[in-house]
Fold this sequence. Notes:
Layout: H1 2-21, E1 29-37, E2 40-50, E3 56-62, E4 65-68, E5 71-75, E6 78-83, E7 88-94, E8 100-107, E9 113-121, E10 146-152, E11 159-166, E12 169-175, E13 184-189, E14 192-198, E15 203-210, E16 216-222, E17 228-233, E18 258-261, E19 264-270, E20 281-286, H2 291-306, E21 313-319, H3 325-338, E22 344-348, H4 353-359, E23 371-375, E24 381-386, H5 395-412
Parallel strand pairs: 20-21, 21-22
Antiparallel strand pairs: 1-2, 1-9, 2-3, 3-4, 5-6, 6-7, 7-8, 8-9, 10-11, 10-17, 11-12, 12-13, 13-14, 14-15, 15-16, 16-17, 18-19, 20-23, 23-24
Amino acid sequence: MKTKLAVIFVLTIILAVGCSSKKGPKLDGHWRAAWESSGGEIPADMYIKTTENGEIMAEVHNDTEIVKFDRVLKTKNHINFYIDRYECVISADLSEDGMSMTGEWSKQSGTPNQMPFSAIKDDIERFPFEKYNPEPNEALLKDISGVWKVRFEGDKYDSMGLFLQERDRVTGTIRAIDGDFRFLEGIYRNGLLFLSSFNGTWVFIFRAEMDEQGLMKGYWARGPKPAVNWTATKEEPDYPDTWELTKLSNDNGVLSFSYPAADDSEQVISSFDQRFKGKPFLAAFYLSGCPNCHDSAEILSQLSKEFKGRDFEMVFIFYELTDKIERIKARVKLFLEDHDLPYLGLYSLAMSKKEIVKEIPDFKNFYAWPTVVFYNSEGKVAAIHTGVDGPATGEYQQKLIDQYRTKIEELLSPTE
């Protein structure tokens, strides 16, 4: 009898182990994710972890930036990764052995985009040496650390490359008049540069080759859109003053707007509203699907706390490039809550920057989301700032925060 009980016990253990193995392979670990673009693959480092209560957590790293997915839902061998602020989802099927997945990335915030997605579970480099390793050339620049003059094909102004190289690893960003390209990470090997980034709404790859005169030539690809050519030389660019780019079409300092409130479409708010009368305020022109606007909002959120109780107002005007009102309202609400901005959100149905100028003819030109307009207590425009320097720009972001702070202080305490 004891022998039979022992046999039954062993069989029970074997069955239990067998059943537990049917739960499928474990997702936890480092994955080399890749998106297929018009410029080839765009790789990034993805990390997945399962909590004690079974919740799946996932994030993508670009240099020091950590992009967290809001939700990860797994049904059998199908996984969806969501980033809500960009209406972004990666929908992928897991292989039988749990070591790879394939699928598609898509987003609906701003211009809809879709790209093929794949990932391999292993500690594989972002740009593996065996794949990204050109022939050595002793005549080429060995280290690209520093400031670079960058020009994208078709651009009117120079951009500024800010790169840091350690061995063959390169990090940094590119400042442009409409905002920086945020955190980029990649390699520079024997004259070949690759930088990539994924943050939910942007999927970027920069490729360039160095010649013996120190000129870099290459392309920038952003998903399925056609690649854009760019060049770079190691020198200070002729970078424009972003406080002088966006102009008024009149000489009386007026920039008037009138839009419905996102929390009540029946309520139309203008720049002459009673709530702004006799006090300085700023109007931020945003697109919630733009990461630069989120960086700008973080700056304004910080300053709103610093100037709390000092009778300075803010209003946020959103251009969501859709006519679906309920989606617009939901995006505006989420954006303001995400950045702890207890201010009024308005919305427009304009579908382009040209349409914005038609809606607000006081704009002589409109270059970028974000654009921040500072008004004095008389309702006249005191300054207009185009774009933003985000956290990837380091000292340039701090300089911008200081400039905003000084501007608000001047408006609150005008000199006679």
